Amino acid sequence: MALTGRTALLAALGSLPVGIWDPSWTGLLAVNAPLALACACDFALASPVRRLKLTRSGDTSARLGDPADITLTITNPSRRPLRAHLRDAWPPSSWPPGTETEASRHRLTVPSGERRRVTTRLRPTRRGDHHSDRVTIRSFGPLGLFTRQGTHKVPWTVRALPPFTSRKHLPSKLARLRELDGRTSVLTRGQGTEFDSLREYVPGDDTRSIDWRATARHSTVAVRTWRPERDRHILLVLDTGRTSAGRVDDAPRLDASLDAALLLAALASRAGDRVDLLAYDRRVRALVQGRTARDVLPSLVNAMATLEPELVETDARGLTAAALRTAPRRSLIVLMTTLDAAPVEEGLLPVLPQLTQRHTVLVASVADPHIARMTMSRGTADAVYEAAAAARAQSERQHTAEQLRRHGVTVVDATPDQLAPALADAYLALKAAGRL
Length: 436
Prior knowledge:
It comes from Streptomyces asoensis. By secondary structure, this protein is α/β, with parallel strands linked by helices.
């Protein structure tokens, strides 16, 4: 406990005529006994802090940027009323910059034997778990001259989940999926598709879809309709190594990969496919397997919440071995990694045949839009050099993508805001072609 009213006492005594009081603490009390008595009474009447009982309730998770309300219940078991200032401390990333002071501090009065509630509204700015620190309470006496101060540990954790901003694209992708699934007039046929039903022939239909036996039994020409196969296995592989820490549009590349993976998982689960997740750099950082269509998205969001880029070089052989263990049967492996020349040529390409001979492989990478803007620079010598450097970087990236395509890999290379819909389109194209 801290006696913080001493400054107030000195200020009050400072109004006395010079020479009446001794500058020492003892002298001050001697020459102004009534004020000293008032301060002692004020301190004695301040409600004790350590006897207070504190409990928490409220939200345990929230999407990044959304509010989370945490309620703190303060019970005063003493015979004195509590008049206090309270600070509910959380990590700095629990609020936007500059808002912590207003959001974490409260004033309250709790009569003897009663309880009161205060609510702290968090608005996390980083993914992951945010743990409460301590609750500091400063109890005032009736005159406000002296205070009692103490701290309490009241544990609570709020998990900030990925924001999933790409969910706005889900309705349009589901409409396209319904077309592929045979629920609308657009019907597809390809390697690996399943027979769905018969319908009457209309001009423009593929004549190879005509069912001659059914036609012989009816007065009209009948054609077979097809739908993409269901219950395919999709493994989302997130490279959480050094390259995923690079910032694009003021956010790590990993964040854009997470958002794209969530859109693909939502779309694939609606299509009846099974979705698993593997996050790897030099060891497994997250693994989600065997979830139902209803549970897969919440499970992925929860697992992705605590993922952070690791500043180590990704072990491509270890990643490949982990992917093969997770997907023992033929699957679509979606590898979200970089298209930088060195990591691909030295790490991924030597082990890529192990994946492509058993699985369909799709590589998705986050492109930096600043590079595209640099290619348009003109007007000064520095701007021309920037444009030349950007053009060379784009050329090397395209060359790396071509190397992957020669191994039968589908490549998606897009900026952060376009990666999620582009990856969903690539999945739908593979499904329409019967490659799943």
